[in-house]
Amino acid sequence: LRMGLAWIKCVAGQTLTQSEAAVKKPGESHRLTCTASGFTFSSSWMSWIRQPPGKPLEWTCEIKDDSSSIDYGSSFKGRFTISRDNNKNQLYLQMNNLKDEDTAVYYCARYTHCDYFDYWGKGTQVTVTTAQTAPTSVFGLSPCGSGGDAAELLSLGCLASGYFPADSVTFKWTDAGGNSVSDFLQYPSVKSGATYSAVSQLQVKAADFGGEKSYKCTAVYPGGQKTEEVKPTPVPPQKSCLNVILKNPRAKELFNEKEAVLECVVTGENEADVHNATITWKVNSAEKKGTDQKESNPLRKSSLLSIRADEWESAKSVECSVMQKNGPRLRKTIKAKTGGKSLQDGSLNSSINCFHLGPNYKWLQLVCLVNVSFGSDVYVAWKKGEGSYEEGLTGEPVKTGSFNFVTSIFSISRDDWDKGINFSCAAAHSFLKSNESPISKSTSKSHGNSFECPTEIS
């Protein structure tokens, strides 16, 4: 018999891992397991020690390294059995005919020849009680929405939790008319801490569940019962799974064709949703026919609407409407933003400079720099003499402060430049009115209003 107990000696690397907490009823049995690592278990004496609530530590039993010697405290003989498996590095304590006073935290520990315990486990709480705990909660579990087919089977559930002991709760189901339903499942109790939870499942036809039709689940336990009604889950308003963008007409078509071309773009994360979407157009509430575009991306669909520039300017609204197969109609509306911003009020300015390449150059590069105080869709075109406008090489807008800058490059021959031919750079944005001319700057060698910068190429 141990004459005294010494508390923990902390040594890094040596551990004793114990089994989980348990709640038992008087007269039941339970087995504790302790797994050792970090030291030579097969050559160590091992012990079990317990500490009841509010009381000091109690030495319970010990076992020699080869199990040839076993000793028990007087109150544990006949009910407790200590054993070990050196191949698994495990120590066991089999507890039979448990009593209320066996409620305690049980520790496994290594016993040394100096009559102290140097390595300890973290302890296992064992609770022995006759108390029965009613479920603290009963929840009804219903499927989201209702079945699309009246004959479809739906699964209803009922969750009871927070009760003790494990086999103390059973379930009952009744339909909306109060009639008992027997064809349901009850799953085994699951332990959570010191109490248990269980689930019951009932399958019903979709036609029998919805509207005023519901079911009741009752958790029955010693001394009472709790009932929960399982009703259809309200379906929230369906959100769109598609995104819709309606783009303003581009300056290019407004400038060249006097035509407003609007684009409605639909994107989504589901190919079927995008494919089944239908795009329609209205101008001032009157339906207009658009043109669906071929897309290589299955998650994108687009349609173009072309109308005269003057019709676009006078329209009160242009609407793009997207009808989803399984969702609400989506609408985007815009109107022309003209007026109040004149091209002549300094909101759009340009300058032209001339660059030539190499000492024996035959070609020159005219560069037109356009700055815009509002909007970013700027179209730049070039004209030689009295000829037609043509495109140069125009870059994307670059924002600097409150301005957007656009650069366009146009190649000309040295001969045309030396002849004094006039070249024009014209700039327009999407707010251009149909009766308004674009900003235009002209230059020629004879005008002398360009900056000529030679650039050597090695």
Automatic annotation (TrEMBL):
Annotated region (Disordered), positions in chain? 436-458
Q: Which UniProt keywords apply?
A: Adaptive immunity, Immunity, Immunoglobulin
Matches recorded under Pfam families: C1-set, V-set
Q: Domain of life of the organism in this record? A: Eukaryota
Give the InterPro entries listed for this entry. Ig-like_dom, Ig-like_dom_sf, Ig-like_fold, Ig_C1-set, Ig_sub, Ig_V-set, IgHV
Gene3D superfamilies in UniProt: Immunoglobulins
Provide the transmembrane region boundaries.
Answer: none
Task: Kindly list the biological process annotations in GO that this record carries.
Answer: adaptive immune response
Entry keyword annotation includes Metal-binding: no
User: For the Ig-like domain, which residue ranges apply?
Assistant: 27-108, 148-231, 237-335, 358-444
Entry-linked SMART domains:
IG, IGc1, IGv
A GO CC annotation recorded here is: immunoglobulin complex
From start to end residue, where is composition biased (Polar residues)?
436-449
Task: Check the record and name the PANTHER family matching this protein.
Answer: IMMUNOGLOBULIN HEAVY CHAIN (PTHR23266)
* Name the record gives this protein: Ig-like domain-containing protein
Ranked from the top, the taxonomy reads: Eukaryota, Metazoa, Chordata, Craniata, Vertebrata
